[in-house]
């Protein structure tokens, strides 16, 4: 006999199962039936929450984005930190390195999942950019950043970096990637009116730390 569960509990069980299956089998190979078997529910229950497998993936993406926004907000709310300290801590907090969220987004980088990849970029820009913009505005008040467009600048930077450094899109050679990472860091500093070198800590996150090859 199937157990009736509260809406949010069942919803998260479906999302958990889908996220695991998408990373283990790949989005294209995983099926709705796989999700049903994993959660032990019928199709009627599934379609009460989602219209399709694509709808489930959209839900997984939104949940990942919401989790990152919560982490970003927690950092932004720390009044003991300066704007540069917040920015460094925030960018570390929203990193997906080493968890299932990273594996999900890697799956989205495949050409067949282009629409979902674009959705992940949109969710990140809409959710995280406003929080980062608050930190940039704090930095403007502190005199360490100089830009009249904190929000718009962060939107452009987040959208462009999430697309530009996807391996499956441009397939940069190591030396090409190293040069572009250095250029990107400098572009971020110039866009925000920050001191040269103040965002160098981003180099490892954007690509392999092989700056020596790009000199």
Summarize the biggest pleated sheet: none
| CA-CA gap between termini | 66 Å
CATH fold label = Tetracycline Repressor, domain 2
* Count of spatially separate domains: 1
Total strands: the figure is 0
Order of helices and strands: HHHHHHHHHHH
From the alpha carbons, calculate the radius of gyration and give it in angstroms: 20 Å
In the CATH scheme, the class would be: Mainly Alpha
- By oligomeric state, this entry counts as single chain
Beta-sheet strand percentage?
under 5%
Approximate helicity band: 55-70%
CATH superfamily: Tetracycline Repressor, domain 2
Shape: globular
Which structural class best describes the helix and strand composition? mainly alpha
- Low-confidence runs: 209-215
Task: Give me the number of helical elements.
Answer: 11
CATH architecture: Orthogonal Bundle
Rounded mean pLDDT is 86
Describe the structure.
The radius of gyration is 20 Å and the shape is globular. The protein contains eleven helices and no strands. It has 215 residues and is mostly helical. It has helices spanning 7-25, 32-39, 43-49, 53-76, 83-93, 100-108, 114-142, 150-164, 167-170, 174-192, 203-206. Helix 1 packs across helix 4. The chain has a single domain (7-171), classed as Tetracycline Repressor, domain 2 (Orthogonal Bundle), CATH 1.10.357.10. Helix content is 69%, strand content 0%. The termini are far apart.
């Amino acid at each position: 006999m199937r157990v009736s569960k509260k809406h949010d509990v069942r919803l998260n069980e479906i999302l958990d199962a889908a996220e695991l299956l998408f990373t283990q089998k790949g989005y294209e190979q995983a099926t709705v039936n796989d999700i049903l078997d994993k959660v032990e529910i019928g199709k009627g229950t599934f379609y009460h929450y989602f219209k399709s497998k694509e709808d489930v993936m959209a839900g997984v993406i939104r949940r990942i984005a919401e989790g990152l926004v919560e982490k970003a907000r927690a950092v932004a709310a720390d009044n003991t930190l300066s704007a540069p300290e917040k920015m460094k801590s925030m960018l570390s907090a929203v990193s997906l390195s080493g968890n299932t969220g990273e594996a999900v987004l890697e799956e989205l980088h495949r050409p067949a999942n282009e629409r979902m990849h674009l959705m992940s970029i949109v969710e990140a820009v809409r959710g995280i950019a406003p929080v980062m913009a608050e930190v940039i505005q704090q930095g403007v008040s502190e005199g360490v950043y100089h830009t009249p467009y904190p929000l718009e600048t962060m939107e452009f930077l987040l959208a462009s970096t999430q697309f530009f450094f996807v391996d499956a899109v441009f397939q940069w050679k190591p030396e090409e990637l190293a040069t572009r990472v250095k250029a990107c860091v400098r572009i971020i500093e110039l866009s925000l009116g920050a001191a040269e070198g103040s965002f160098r800590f981003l180099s490892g996150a954007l690509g392999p730390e092989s700056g020596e090859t790009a000199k």
